[in-house]
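Researcher: I'd like a candidate sequence for this fold, 126 residues long. If you have to choose between options at a position, lean toward the conservative one.
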């Protein structure tokens, strides 16, 4: 039932969102935005805001894990491990007030976002 949560949310809130592929892109972009805000909160020594923004990133990562389709092959298993490790880094960033952990997660998501955009552009061109 949880596997379809993002898709169901997409269907219910289809405001300006063209496809499930776009939803994944938006989730990746969300992690990047939330991490930037968390990093800003660390610089401002605002523990409450830091925790809020890191929790937002955690929620997106949990949803990304929940929507993986293991029938699509090994990529889902790879992404599970990758996303789980990113969750661990976010916990460490929050626990130790460590902006470098946020940077590491952001770097991974920048790469994922770029790869996602390339793969979905190719799919639409085919």
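Model: Candidate sequence:
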């Amino acid at each position: 039932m949880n596997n379809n949560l993002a898709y169901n949310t997409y269907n219910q809130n289809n405001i300006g969102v063209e496809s499930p592929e776009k939803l994944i892109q938006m989730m990746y972009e969300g992690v990047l935005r939330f991490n930037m805000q968390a990093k800003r909160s660390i610089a401002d020594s605002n523990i409450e805001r830091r925790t809020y923004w890191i929790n937002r990133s955690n929620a997106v990562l949990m949803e990304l894990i929940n929507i993986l389709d293991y029938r699509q092959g090994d990529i889902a298993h790879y992404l599970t491990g990758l996303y789980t490790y990113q969750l661990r880094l976010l916990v460490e960033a929050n626990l130790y007030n460590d902006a470098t952990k946020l940077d590491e997660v952001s770097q991974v998501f920048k790469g994922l976002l770029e790869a996602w955009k390339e793969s979905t552009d190719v799919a639409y061109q085919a």
